[in-house]
Design goal:
By secondary structure, this protein is an all-alpha fold. Helices cover 85% and strands 0% of the residues. It is built from six helices and no strands. Helix 1 (2-25) runs antiparallel to helix 2, helix 4 runs antiparallel to helix 5 and helix 5 (124-142) runs antiparallel to helix 6 (146-177). The longest helix is centred in the C-terminal third of the chain and has 32 residues, at 146-177. The chain starts with a helix and ends with a helix.
Length: 178
């Protein structure tokens, strides 16, 4: 449960950053949008906190060798993701196409979720990776300029929040049924 809370927390924070990127570029931060955005974020963060606090010290019960192997796989995946993001930035800059930057980074993030699914053995991450990658490729085809950045930000952020929500709801369902 603690791992789920931590992974969901990363998803909530990253999703919030992506959505903020899209909303700020769209100049959509009106009072109603801020209230809805902040309310959803607070509910998700409360769910993450619940999972982390209720889990207590259960993560210390895992064998050290499994945790080390998991951390090594995650480290390799993180390095590959960073290399992909840097490559996207350099390529967009070289092509003088800053408008595609968010979208291409989104594609890298989407592809990296397939690796996360394997490292953490979480099947929903395959769905998340496919959804983010599909959304960003579709956006790249359909939109241009600021609209592409807005679409990438809102789409990736929304998918990350949806994934975090599903993970947190699964934990809650287990707690109430068991």
């Amino acid at each position: 449960m603690r791992g789920t809370g931590k992974r969901a927390l990363v998803g909530v924070l990253a999703g919030g950053a992506w959505m903020s990127w899209g909303l700020s570029l769209a100049h959509a931060f009106s009072l109603p949008v801020i209230i809805v955005f902040a309310s959803i974020a607070c509910i998700l963060l409360a769910g993450c906190g619940y999972c982390i606090v209720k889990a207590g010290r259960s993560s210390s019960l895992q064998p050290t060798s499994r945790r080390h192997k998991l951390n090594l796989g995650f480290l390799v995946l993180t390095i590959l993701e960073a290399a992909g993001v840097v490559s996207a930035i350099l390529l967009a800059r070289r092509m003088n196409r800053v408008d595609v930057l968010a979208d291409w980074i989104g594609i890298v993030v989407g592809v990296h979720f397939f690796g996360l699914a394997r490292v953490f053995k979480i099947a929903i991450y395959h769905v998340t990776g496919a959804a983010i990658t599909f959304w960003c490729v579709l956006s790249w085809i359909v939109f241009h300029g600021d609209t592409l950045t807005i679409s990438a930000g809102l789409g990736v952020g929304g998918i990350l929040w949806a994934t975090s929500s599903v993970n947190l709801l699964r934990v809650l369902a287990k707690r109430t049924s068991g």
